[in-house]
Amino acid sequence: MKTLTLTFCAATLAAGAALAADSCATGKTLKDGVLTIATGNPAYYPWVADDKPESGKGFEAATAYAIAEKMGFGRDQVEWVRTSFDEAIQPGAKNFDFNMQQYSITPEREQMVDFSLPYYTSAMAVLTTDAVVENGIEPTVASLKGVIWGADANTTAVPMLMDMVGPEKDPLLYGDNADVTAAMQARQIDAALFDLPTALYLAAVVLDGGTVLGQFPADRSENPDQFGLLLEDGNPLKECVDAAITALTDSGELAAIEAKWLQEATGVPVIE
Q1: Residue 250 CB-density burial (10 A; 0-12 exposed, 13-18 middle, 19+ buried)
Q2: Domains, the chain, with CATH or none
């Protein structure tokens, strides 16, 4: 009888927790009982695997379902829609409850839309080429000190580089990131620092033979880039997603998702 009582109590508590989570979102979603989540068109790996967010594979897809669960929504209660990056960030009514497309939280954007608490703090990563790796560069600070670096003179990349690596030679400075990648393609420089998402994109799409050698822990940056869920300005659902992100952060679940999809899956080692 005691065992049955304990089992009943546990089930009651679990049901109560689910109801509590669901009650926060009741009446606040576009469709009753449904959480509508937007992603890009197309959505790229490692954020979404194979352009199929419904699979739950990829960092943002997995995070979206984890947030939905904390809010009381099952997988069958999540619907996906597609938007461009720019159209979603414009003021006005939205066709989603929240949007995940690596939106950096900035004061300028917060004048047009709402953001959740951060679900990801971007690490800084080392972009280089296969040819440089073949010549012996390794994902260690000692190895990185001796290579030729390039940087956009208009960004914080230079002070970050000097603080994190302290290269033996001053970096070559360029007018923008396009000039930096062009210089790397021309073998004028060996490496450059970018936030991890940008480095992954440049390595896969822009730079022939590009590769991301390693990433520094996010806490090494004074002002790291932080991503938030994008919501319509004044959306009452914000308190619910903030509570879900806080719970996932406190439990370590969010860190585990990040480790799986942004470290293990991409093969980008952490440079200590």
Answers
A1: exposed
A2: 2-120+230-264 (3.40.190.10), 124-220 (3.40.190.10)
Torsion angle of C-alpha atoms 169, 175, 180, 185, degrees rounded to 10: -110
What residue ranges in 189-261 does DSSP mark as E strands? 192-195, 210-216, 226-232
How does DSSP classify residue 139? Answer: S
For residue range 67-84, list pLDDT tens digits in order: 999 999 999 999 999 999
Rg (CA), the chain: 21
First to last CA, the chain: 55
What tens digit of pLDDT does each residue of 10-47 get?
333 333 334 344 589 999 999 999 999 999 999 988 89
152 in Cβ contact with 202 (< 8 Å): no
Spatial contact of 237 and 129, defined as CB atoms under 8 Å apart: no
Helix and strand numbers (H, E) in the chain are 10, 10
By mean pLDDT, which of 22-31, 94-103, 164-173 is the weakest? 22-31
Q: Does residue 151 contact residue 161 with C-beta atoms inside 8 Å?
A: yes
In this prediction, residues 179-199 reach a mean pLDDT of 93
Do 102 and 195 touch, CB atoms closer than 8 A? Answer: no
